Fold each of these.
Amino acid sequence: GHLWYAKQLVADGILDSPALVQLCMGVPWGAPDDLNTFMAMVNNVPDDWTFSAFALGRNQMAYVAAAVLAGGNVRVGLEDNLWLGKGELAQNWQLVERAVTIVENMGAKVIGPEEVRQKLGLQKRAPK
């Protein structure tokens, strides 16, 4: 539903295209946490859009790999998953470090903030 709505917002001129969308897997009453649903969503992202993908909970790191394999970008963090392993609370940097290891071991590249801004056409603003 969210992907469909994003497309509608672009069609209505509310959002500019190309858009950035995040495919969130494993949300109750949202997108289930399965690869068939994930790939259906990926296949419905317009070709000129940028997407990232993530999953809530224990499959967060599996979707790091899935996002890379599907040609997308990665999102990780404590807002989606509190655990590094069974019974082991994570710190955000640990989740990021683990995701970087997965991405790099798959032969993909992790880019920094400046490259992200360039890729997405964002402008850095001075803090107020």
Note: The mean pLDDT is 93.
Amino acid sequence: MKLGLLTAILDGWSFEEVIDEVSKQGLSCVEVACWPIEKSERRYGGVHHIDVEHLDEARAKEIKEYCSKRNVEISALGYYPNTLDPLRREQNIAHLKKVIVAAEMLSVGLVTTFIGRDQTKSVEENLKLVQSHWPAIIHFAEEHHVKIAIENCPMLFGQDQWPGGQNLMYSPAIWKQIFEMIPSDHFGLNFDPSHFVWQQMDYIKAIRDFKDKIFHVHFKDIKLKKDKLAEYGVLAYPLSYMEPKIPGLGDVNWGNFVSELTQIGYEGYACLEIEDYAFEGSKERILDSIRQAKRYMELFVS
């Protein structure tokens, strides 16, 4: 496995500054945040380390050469919108397609994203929306020789994402339905075990069941607060009873997780996704969180 970093935590840094820091820390790859250049209200959203809107062959060549000189690969271009939001669907899908084109231009074979959800509609109604909109997106990716990996985050944390959440592909049962609906070798998962913890699902079984669909991995942890869960219950906003942490400070059993990835023969990219509130006080604290997460995961990934 190749250990890297999702760059969204380094908001405000230039692409070159990000690559220099990643190289300095001894990480081997980056999942590059590629949101549109506009203000986003969502934490960790709206970050753009590559401007796909204005990317041309000359800039793409510069990016590839800069990464090569510093021994850092681009694992994927990451853009995580709600592509089924009825108010922003067209513009979100349009930008996703620009990210796909940029991935081809940069010789990056993967785009990481969400499948989205209309949070006012049922699961069944949203499956029909997926059927209406996503086959064309996957076909577009196929034409550009790019794979799509959907992260399994429900995007259901606070009041603005309630009810339903903003990403339908949150459980193995739904993965199965959608992969049967859109049977493509270019369509798979960006597997994050942390979301299994607070939903009380089995990430080991999911690795086995979907081993051929795991295109990319996130190393992020979650601390389930059992006293808060007992007080608030599972119907509360999830942030009432859990908190994102860097690997090693939460409840994911990383030894078991990486062991199972090794067992299925996964040798792809695994990027640290840093969203730990305890490390957000300053630039140095953010860098500390990356260093600490890297040291811990190197116990399992060489």
Note: The chain has a mean pLDDT of 96.
Amino acid sequence: MVRTFNINGDRLLQSIAELAAIGSLPQGGVRRIAYTPEDIQGRNLVKQWMQDAGMSLRIDPAGNIIGVYAGKMPQLPVLATGSHIDTVPSGGRYDGTLGVLAGLEVVRTLRDKNLQFNHSLEVIVFTDEESSTIGSKGMSGNLVRDANYYRRPDGSDIQTCLKRVGGNWDEIEIAKRDEKAIAAFVELHVEQGPVLESMQKEIGIIEGIVGQRRFKILVEGSANHAGTTPMSMRRDALVAASRVVLAVNAIGNTPGQQVATVGQFQVYPNAANVVPGNVEMSLDLRDLSSRHIDRLLQQLRLYLEEIAIATATKIQILPRLHLEPALTEPHIQQAIARSCEKRNFTYTYLPSRASHDAQEMASITDMGMIFVPSSGGISHAETEHTSPEECVRGANILLDTLWQLDRYYK
């Protein structure tokens, strides 16, 4: 049964506006990069709000802020929600932030009504989602145990960075949560894409977070004089690479929900009067099914062999990243759907093609995600926008979903 009451929408929106003022940019966006003074100021504000809402508070060695609203039966595994408040250099005010502050608003609403779940409820602010996901990786136990791997672009070491936010690299293994400690994790997030808006749906129920494979593709031809080398005698790496880009686009457009992208491209020697001798490019391939990704890669490798023969070039494909898909739990999807139906909100099912902290949490607990629309599908930009009504709508669905899950888990 779905018990329906509403969060305080005005309070949620005010909190979003107050947090957005920290690191605000001239065009309305936010720059609050992990570990910077702005990030620390934002974290301190959220911690104060958590304490004001009657939550106990701790920071784990990965720097995650964990606010706990006690349940009637604290011996039960906790329910958890949350996201992140760090941003990209020119970000918006909703990415990550909405999930944290909606979770906080669920707690505030319960406290206003003098209510408790049976389970304690955790609201988590994960550390550095936008760069390393070290917070959720620390909590899931999926860290790379090499401090140099997490060195920041500005050269800062991870030991210093974590210390700034209350974490401790030397004890980071302690951040890993026992798989029986959390009953379920549900993350509310802006879609960061155009699907909900294009379908005119109010809520997205996430089927899973796609797996990602990234590669470097190297094309080796032969550099030569652009004026004196006959066309029939050229081993032009750029011609071959152009065919590779079209092949990637072709597999991306085969039946299925996959996406395939060449986003980086370097030509050598990159001179107007030289036949290109070498090309380096990236490949990003994403889908909810690892088997489907494997099939697409097999097809691409056949294309690459054909292109290499036709252009007299050598083509290599080198792995750079491998992330397995994280599927959401069917009963959490059903709880979200019931919540939408109770409130007469339109909804659809879709995958998340962007990574989230929930992807790491899925390795230690049941996971679900709720999306609300992003205007124009824009995110990671100052013009990112989700309407006040959509923010409040998503927070109410989060409240209803957590209420149901509190009854589901014993």
Note: The chain has two domains: 9-210+325-408, 211-323.
